[in-house]
């Protein structure tokens, strides 16, 4: 069963939320954060990208940078830009977007902000589908330690639940605490506070009946939060298990509501092949069809769209080139990595090879075309999106997805709620 608890969130006053809130720390670089923060001293970037508080070029891993995050967090609370709620509660967070994956139609997804139990990460109730890197875990651990708080939430999915759906619908009909359209992405973000004791009890009870929660986005933050919680438990001689540090902040969405976009590849060269030789090599494992100069998007699983020399191609994996019973091998990211990137182009390590880069589907196929046409890249490969069902199946089986397989959109905004560990 999944253990969650309400908590006393630290939040901006309603009048200040749009000055405080920000994009997540890991979707932009230091200079983008510096530009977005501008002269706004209330921007959360001063806490989650604290290198912007120093001269350009200062490393984000400089010990002074972590200390600056804590100083800024204290300042925000002292100035009243962040205020802690009096009552332990849950929160409902809604995101409304228009995405190509949804036919450019407006869609709203509703998540519940909870304190997730760190022990559930260690015992496998909170399931992961990606590997984490030790250096990134350590970075996030330092950030959690120095602030004694989860400044940003992680993004979970849960099996659909009709009781929670009804509770969310009840609140969605009322006036939200926050309601704004964010710059950059243009998506609408809303927040409600679940303060009624009966509703709080319902949330806790419904999650307790769930066999698992699934990390959608935020594997490093989840790992770091769980490790810091374990550290604090060891350091506390009077540890009982109900302390606040045993929990970390997560926004949990019903799995059916989530949108996963394609996560595409751009490649610098053809590994010594001419365009004709490359296309001929593809024909061994794929049915190759020229689609002309108009953008072409893959229409189904095991189909890829390729952009090369100003033209788009459909690549359909032939039967027998993958094992339909292998939850990892059947993924399009695995098929393309093995049969195209590795066998033909000699790219074996997606995390480290400098000949390949990755483009989230929100940027569209036009971004792939632009990077190839500019001469920066030689070819581009667009994948059909992974499904939430595939992710949950892989997580349930204890397997790990290949790198750069999923791109969830919209991203959570940071700064709407913060969770203190003590």
Description of the structure:
- The structure is a single chain.
- The protein is an alpha+beta fold.
- The chain folds into two domains: 4-259 and 409-420, no CATH class; 263-384, 2-Layer Sandwich (Conserved hypothetical protein from pyrococcus furiosus pfu- 392566-001, domain 2).
- The protein has helices at residues 17-20, 30-37, 45-48, 63-78, 118-123, 134-147, 162-172, 197-208, 219-235, 275-282, 332-342, 364-373, 388-396; strands spanning 4-5, 10-11, 83-84, 90-98, 106-117, 126-127, 149-150, 154-158, 178-181, 188-194, 213-217, 247-254, 260-261, 263-267, 286-292, 303-308, 311-317, 356-360, 379-383, 407-408, 419-420.
- The strands form five sheets. Strands 1, 4, 5, 6, 8, 9, 10, 11 and 12 form a nine-stranded mixed β-sheet that branches. A six-stranded antiparallel β-sheet has the order 15-17-16-19-14-18, sandwiched between helices.
- A hairpin with a 6-residue loop joins strand 9 and strand 10.
- The radius of gyration is 23 Å and the shape is globular.
- The model has no long low-confidence stretch (mean pLDDT 94).
Which descriptors would you attach to this protein?
422 residues; alpha+beta; Conserved hypothetical protein from pyrococcus furiosus pfu- 392566-001, domain 2; 2 domains; 9-stranded mixed sheet; 21 strands
Write the layout of secondary structure elements.
Layout: E1 4-5, E2 10-11, H1 17-20, H2 30-37, H3 45-48, H4 63-78, E3 83-84, E4 90-98, E5 106-117, H5 118-123, E6 126-127, H6 134-147, E7 149-150, E8 154-158, H7 162-172, E9 178-181, E10 188-194, H8 197-208, E11 213-217, H9 219-235, E12 247-254, E13 260-261, E14 263-267, H10 275-282, E15 286-292, E16 303-308, E17 311-317, H11 332-342, E18 356-360, H12 364-373, E19 379-383, H13 388-396, E20 407-408, E21 419-420
Parallel strand pairs: 6-11, 8-12
Antiparallel strand pairs: 1-5, 2-3, 4-5, 4-10, 5-12, 7-21, 8-11, 9-10, 13-20, 14-18, 14-19, 15-17, 16-17, 16-19
